[in-house]
TrEMBL record:
Intracellular or extracellular location(s): Cytoplasm
Organism (species): Elachura formosa
Keyword Transmembrane: yes
InterPro entries cross-referenced by the UniProt entry: DHBP_synth_RibB-like_a/b_dom, Sua5-like_dom, TC-AMP_synthase_SUA5
Protein name: Threonylcarbamoyl-AMP synthase
Length: 761
């Protein structure tokens, strides 16, 4: 409801600004200068994007794609207005020519969202999208029709304002009547109940549709050029880079929606869009795209399309259009300015619109448009070799819970692109003319930083450190070498910086010995690339060494890319990555690793209870720190917990219960004052030190009772943690000690427990 209100407030605000702009545009001095209007639209676009991102994933409606679509539209629109306001588009028709591709795209995109909204019974959102589409259509036709003037465009935007006023009136009536009176479509309580009924029917990735509409946006720039509507100009860079920036955001959100393959696809298309904008910026230098890089990119797209076909054949076939686009770019000396790639861009525009409709409809509709997923599952069910990963824990990391799916496949693919980009030999006199910077900086740098951040969120400390370190190196080296900053000069300071980086990477190479063989070769071959940078800095680079080093690193990265995709798609690792080259004696050396179960699930607590009843020892979260526990009813487990912890005599184990009813058989052994005090004090973090007595024998610890407390007293409490008390309800009283070796700091994260006691529990 909050986000619906935000949308119905922000849309009329932006439309009111545009209505004022178009009503006053015939004047010599408009009420809102272009720069001011552009800045205001950018601010509203940021707020709309926030509203779309904050929308619940489980109850996603058409509100998400509408927010993100409109945010992208106003971002590109506002950027062009600011550029025009600064005099960068001096001719009379330059501003409209720059706006034309975006207006055409968003007119169609908003119309598609309106149609799907009506089909999915979301009339208010559908009317809002239709009115915005009509206003954009009027602005699109403005220079081509003498019967349409700026007032017609302003009237379209006023229609959006009227819808906003209708929603505001409905909310006021609902508030004043305490929910008894509500205009149709404005009852947020009814909408919330409807979303709760429909929540399970939604698409797994509600952000796929906005990503597909953004593909339409950057493809429309070249469609308009091929159809003769515009010529490629500087103003179109705003649309290309807006699409690229938003697609990086969609990539992150797709990882948040646990959709690895579509997230990787949007990462790939964002690189294409960034490189196209870079070419437009430097079109006076006739920029050239490296053919080997484009061939490698087409192979990456083809592999991703193959894996995506197993999840959704429609999406997999859709990606084949991008394979064709990369091949067309590689075969065309003119690059994006040639008619061949522009013709493929038309195909991208059309197929993106069709697939976007499928995703938009499947976000909300119960009767979904089939994408072929069932046929693939039925086909693979007959195979004994390949079995798709499924289930709620599909992307759950081994060490606990993460809100993001694994992004290693994208990070490896970016390494392939960055390494093949380094093979390009450009003109030293015009270094920017060879299009390398987008691939090295965006793919090797920005997207690899994204992969490192996601890896860190998933508890992969070494992998995240390596990805972030390599991303920084790609950005620095790519900008220095391929932007003309490096030039032909070489100096000692450059060599020292590279040596420092190599020392950091040496540590990563050493640590990867304890991870797996694939990671060891991945980090080791990058050391060869760094060595080529160093040899180049000291004028000692052998002929062909840099080419060989980057190709070897690219091939290793490609294998890791395939392994990451296969491990995230199929059960069992189809492509081996090897075990650790060296094995630590403490962490992970046990024959069977202990299970890691998320505490937020009741099934996990039940499984831990079964382990405790069977004599196991477990590390669990509490209201204070992580603790190591054993069931009192299993004396062998109590003794094992004492030994594994190397418990010091001055730090005895304590006793936890979930209710005083568990001590009811021994109530006569406690004084009434003490019993009343325990009832008043618990549950809480307070432990009561109680004189040891016969009541301890009622807990069933037998001889192991000597490990709990001291000879004269026992510390006991009821924890103020629902997970812990539920576990004790299932198991009975437990003995507790901190989940860390004696003398070390307390553990506050499950990774710390695993690192310190992983082979002991």
């Amino acid at each position: 409801g909050r986000f619906m209100s935000s949308l119905c407030l922000l849309c009329p605000t932006g439309s009111l600004l545009l209505a004022v702009h178009f009503y006053s545009s015939p004047r010599a001095a408009p009420l809102l200068p272009s720069t001011t209007l552009g800045l205001l639209l950018l601010l509203l676009a940021a707020l709309l994007a926030y509203a779309g991102i904050r929308r619940s994933l489980s109850n996603a409606s058409l509100l998400v794609p509408l927010c993100l679509t409109l945010s992208a539209f106003w971002s590109g629109y506002g950027a062009i207005l600011m550029v025009a306001g600064q005099g960068a588009l001096p001719a009379a028709g330059d501003a409209h020519a720059a706006l034309l591709p975006g207006l055409a795209t968003f007119t169609l995109a908003l119309l598609l969202e309106a149609v799907v909204g009506f089909l999915c019974r979301e009339p208010l959102l559908a009317l809002l999208a239709a009115t915005l589409s009509l206003a954009s259509a009027h602005e699109l036709a403005l220079p081509f029709s003498s019967s349409l003037g700026p007032s017609a465009v302003a009237c379209g935007h006023l229609g959006v304002c009227l819808l906003g006023g209708y929603f505001a009136l409905g909310r006021i009536l609902c508030f004043l009547s305490k929910g008894k009176v509500a205009l149709p479509g404005t009852d947020l309580a009814e909408r919330k109940a409807q979303e709760q009924r429909w929540g399970s029917a939604g698409s797994t990735n509600p952000f796929a549709a906005p990503g597909l509409l953004l593909n339409m946006l950057w493809a429309s720039v070249f469609c308009c050029r091929l159809l003769g509507a515009t010529t490629l100009a500087l103003g179109h860079v705003s649309w290309l880079w807006t699409a690229a920036t938003f697609q990086i955001g969609i990539c992150v959100l797709s990882y948040r929606a646990m959709d690895v393959l579509m997230a990787t696809a949007f990462g790939f298309t964002s690189v294409l869009s960034f490189s196209a904008g870079y070419c437009l910026l430097l079109q006076h230098q006739e920029p050239a795209l490296p053919a080997p890089l484009l061939v490698a990119f087409s192979i990456l797209f083809a592999v991703l399309a193959l894996f995506l076909s197993l999840q959704s054949p429609v999406d997999g076939l859709y990606l084949l259009v991008f394979v064709t686009y990369c091949v067309a770019l590689a075969c065309s000396p003119g690059g994006i300015f040639a008619s061949g790639p522009q013709g493929v861009a038309v195909a991208i525009f059309v197929t993106s619109a069709v697939v976007a409709v499928v995703h938009l409809y499947n976000v909300r509709a119960r009767a979904k448009i089939p994408t072929g997923q069932g046929a693939v599952k039925a086909l693979l069910a007959r195979s004994s070799l390949l079995k798709l990963r499924e289930g709620p824990d599909l992307h759950a990391p081994y060490l606990g819970y993460s809100r993001y799916a694994d992004a290693e496949a994208l990070a490896y693919a970016c390494s392939v692109l960055a390494s093949f980009a380094l093979t390009a030999t450009g003109d030293p006199q015009a270094p920017l003319a060879t299009v390398v910077i987008p691939w090295v900086v965006v793919a090797g740098g920005i997207l690899k930083l994204l992969g490192g951040s996601v890896a860190f969120a998933r508890g992969k400390t070494l992998e995240s450190s390596a990805f972030i370190l390599y991303a920084v190196m790609w950005i620095i080296w790519g900008l220095a070498r391929f932007s003309g900053l490096y030039g032909t000069a070489r100096n000692f300071h450059t060599a020292v910086g590279i040596v420092a980086f190599m020392l950091f990477n040496s540590f990563i190479v050493f640590c990867s010995l304890f991870l797996n063989t694939a990671w060891f070769f991945y980090s080791l071959t990058f050391m060869l690339v760094a060595l080529s940078f160093l040899l180049d800095a000291i004028h000692a680079l052998p002929a062909g060494y840099d080419l060989a080093a980057t190709l070897i690193f690219g091939l290793v990265s490609f294998y890791c890319f395939l392994a990451a995709l296969s491990s995230s798609t199929f059960e069992g690792c189809c492509l081996p990555v090897g075990g650790p080259v060296l094995q630590l004696g403490a962490v992970g050396a046990a024959a069977t690793k202990c299970p890691h179960l998320p505490a937020r699930k009741a099934s996990s607590v039940k499984r831990i209870a079964d382990i405790l009843r069977s004599g196991g020892t477990c590390g669990i979260p509490t209201d204070t720190v992580y603790v190591l526990v054993a069931a009192c009813s299993r004396p062998d487990a109590v003794e094992r917990a004492h030994r594994s912890k190397r418990q010091a005599q001055d730090r005895p184990m304590s006793l936890w219960i979930s209710s005083l009813k568990q001590l009811e058989p021994a109530k006569h052994l406690f004084t009434p004052l003490l019993w009343d005090f325990m009832e008043a004090a618990w549950p809480s973090p307070i432990s009561l030190v109680i004189p040891r007595g016969e009541w301890v024998d009622f807990l069933g610890m037998k001889d192991s009772a000597k490990y709990v407390g001291t000879p004269g007293s026992v510390a006991i409490r009821i924890p103020d943690c629902s997970v812990t008390t539920h576990l004790i309800d299932l198991v009975g009283p437990i003995v507790v000690t901190s989940a860390n070796p004696t003398g070390e700091a307390d553990t506050t994260h499950h990774n710390q427990v695993y690192a310190k006691l992983g082979d002991q529990v």
